[in-house]
Each structure stands twice: as C-alpha cells, then as structure tokens.
Amino acid sequence: MAKKVLVTEKLAEAGLARMRERGLEADVKLKMSTEELIATIPDYDALIVRSATHVTREVIEAGKKLRIIGRAGVGVDNVDVDAATEAGVIVCNAPTSNIVSAAEQTMCLLLACARNTAQANASMHAGEWSRGKFCGSELYEKTLAIFGLGRIGGLVAERARAFGMHLVGYDPYCSPERAEQLGVALYDNMEDILPLADFITVHLPKTEETIGMFGPDQYAAMKDGVILVNVARGGIYNVDSLADFLAAGKIAACGIDVFETEPCTESPLHEFPNAILTPHLGAYTREAQTRAGVQIAEYVAAGLEGSVVPTA
Ligand code: MLT
To answer: What is the similarity comment for this entry (predicted)?
Structure first.
C-alpha cells in the first residue's frame, strides 16, 4: 500500500508531483485546526508543513504511524523537534531552498528604507508629485552590520559588497576564515558593532537567546538615523521599543518582514510610514517555493524509503 503524506499548507505542484512519481499518496488539507490535525494525523506516515502549522507534541504523539516531518522552508521553530526526536520521528527541512529569495528581500527592504520607496509610491497614488520629503541616502560606503553569517547572512554580505558597503558582523558560530572570505569584519561583542552601523540586518534563527536580542539598551547604543531590517524571525527586535525609537527619530526607518505572531494585522509599527512592513514574503517567490516543494518531497520520499535524510 502506498505510504501517505499529509500536506497542511500550499506546496508547489512540482513537489506534489515528485511525491506521486515516487509512489506516495500526497493529500493536501489546508487550514486545519490543531484539533483537526490531531484527529487526522494517525492515518499518515509523513507530514509536510510550511510556517503556519504548529506541529506540537500533541500532534506528534497522535501520529502513531508518523515517521518523518518535512518543513518546506528553512526555520523549524514551528515544529516541536524535541518531541519528534523522543518519538523517533525525523524532522527535515529544505535548508537552501529560499536563501537567495530571503537575501534579495533583505536588499529590497534596505533599499526601500534608504530611498523612501513605499512612502513615495503611496504619495504618487494619492495624486501628489512630492519630491522634497523623499530625499534618500545611498548604501554606497555605508556600514552594514550583519547579525548571523550563515547561509542567508553570507548571501546578503555578497550582495551588499556589490553596493560598495562596508561590512561588520556578529556571529559566535562564524569562523574568522569565513568572515574574511565574506569581506566582513567580525566582532566578538555585539555591543561594539551597534555604534558603527548605518544599517543593521539580522539573519538568526528564533531561539531563547535571539528573541528580544535588540531592545531599548541596544537601540540607544546605535548611531542616530540607523535603519534596521528583519527578514529572519519576529521578536528578534523588540517591536514596542522599536516604535518608541522610531517616534523619537533615533531610528530613521525599519523594514520588517516577520512578526512575533503571524498573521499580524496590527502592531506598534503600523502607524509609522517609515516602517516598511511586508507579510513574511522573504521566501515567497516562485523559484523558492518550487525549490522548497521539490527538495522537501525528495527528503520525505527518501526518509520513507529508509534512506538517510539530513535532519534540520
Ligand atoms: C523559512 O523559514 O523558510 C522562511 O521564513 C519562509 C517560511 O517560513 O515559509
């Protein structure tokens, strides 16, 4: 009998096709509540999710046949990995599927913040021709601080170098050799970087250490007029005090793609035109979605066939 894969969020057609080619039965059931998922999961050998499904301990324990959980994307913070490990269920992700898209979204927000693109667009649509209030600043020869020099942070460094930016970085797991290769001056202490940066971007996972890593003390230590971007995970910047520092003009603008609770339709940032907000679009390109769908389909199929799968 064909092994059954439950897919609870929209997955690229190519990914579904790949599973069917590998002899799997892939059922797509969208927008399930946790209770529905708990009631449904016992029939399935594998589960594929993106970021909206919370794969809790209860879900995993209900999955009596469950062998593998695939995350069609990078972050696995919506999966209880400890519970899965205890239950002997593999958790895998598609670690390189969307890194280019995330790096490009970072550059997009850096540029949009520096050049007031969103505000100018809103003004044009309101029938205005107003140039004076939208004078921007160049990225060229500015200092960009990159927190997190993993795959995405590294791609951001490459792109920022092409804009002629000076790069500083903080990442306790990055070797001096890699930092040198990326052209990033590596610092051991995040506090030393804050006063240097004209722009700051974070490329860190959501962990107990990273949530709230930037709050009032860190904002106060930054350069006047700094621009902040977050395409990683909501909560790394404390948003309440970020709004206070935007209001005070200490932070000139921010580009925020991710929120502590998603979907997010209101936040202290929503009232600021210089807070450029996007609804978690970092990985949301046709190319990245196709790559994520196919990569995760391959891993899930391999896992169900008993092959070794790189775990998340
Ligand atoms: C990821 O972790 O892959 C990205 O944040 C995109 C997503 O959550 O779908």
So the answer is: Belongs to the D-isomer specific 2-hydroxyacid dehydrogenase family.
User: What is the best residue among 48, 51, 101, 256 to mutate for testing ligand 1's pocket, by most ligand atoms within 8 Å of CB?
Assistant: 51
pTM of the predicted model, to two decimals?
Answer: 0.95
Task: ipTM value, please give it.
Answer: 0.93
Query: Residue 235: CB within 6 Å of ligand 1?
Result: no
Domain span at 174: 99-277
Number of structural domains the chain divides into: 2
Q: Is the CB of 101 under 6 A from ligand 1?
A: no
Whole-number Å distance, alpha carbon 51 to ligand 1 midpoint, is: 6
> Do both 144 and 254 map to the same domain?
yes
> What distance in Å separates the CA atoms of residue 251 and residue 225, rounded to the nearest whole number?
5
What tens digit of pLDDT does each residue of 226-273 get?
A: 999 999 999 999 999 999 999 999 999 999 999 999 999 999 999 999
Q: Tell me which residue has tokens 């070794």.
A: 308
- Do 212 and 258 lie in one domain? The reply is yes
Tell me the three state secondary structure of residue 72. Answer: coil
**CB–CB of 287/260 below 8 Å?**
no
Q: Are residues 106 and 245 in the same domain?
A: yes
CA angle, residues 206, 208, 209, in degrees to nearest 5? 90
20 catalytic? Reply is: no
Is the minimum distance from the CB of 283 to ligand 1 under 6 angstroms?
yes
